[in-house]
Amino acid sequence: MALVTPLDPNHDAETKKLAEFFNETLGFCPNSVLTMQHRPAISKAFINLNKAVMANEGRVTSALKRMIAWVSSNATGCRYCQAHAIRAAERYGAEQEQLDNIWEYRTHPAFSEAERAALDFSLAASQVPNTVNGDIKARLYEHWNEGEIVEMLGVISLFGYLNRWNDSMGTSIEDGAVESAEQYLGGIGWEKGKHDGSRY
What we know:
The chain is built from 11 helices and no strands. The chain is an all-alpha fold. The longest helix is centred in the last third of the chain and has 24 residues, at 146-169. Residues 40-120 form the Carboxymuconolactone decarboxylase-like domain.
């Protein structure tokens, strides 16, 4: 079971209302949010940040944002967030060929140079120590403006929080997320790991 037990979705009315956002993105309210409800100010602030980060104000599509989240979560090793990110990418219209070949984004023809620059940025920004450098900056500026770069780093930073939250909590992964992860990531080694409900 998880480090802390998720609370019932009806525990906090304001969180429940805000969490309707996840019915669109994932098809369910994630256990991570249900756990945050132990301190409703955290769950509400997190959902509002998530909504702000995932809003599209430039050319960074909803699907690309979720692929950025996947690369970030892959870099940190959070299986829970990998599954959620690939499920949301699927639900937000990522091309089938991209979903099937996300591990090969650097070389697969389904990805554009602009997408590769964004995904390499996600990888570099998610590593410890951080490896964002002048080359990453130059490649980003070839394809994206500063507002779009801010949107990307918002996604990377949001998932930095989620990766630490869910890996530390051992958050139990939901069936829908498992289904997407097994479909797109199972052939390349994805498994529930500590998120199978029996970690602690």
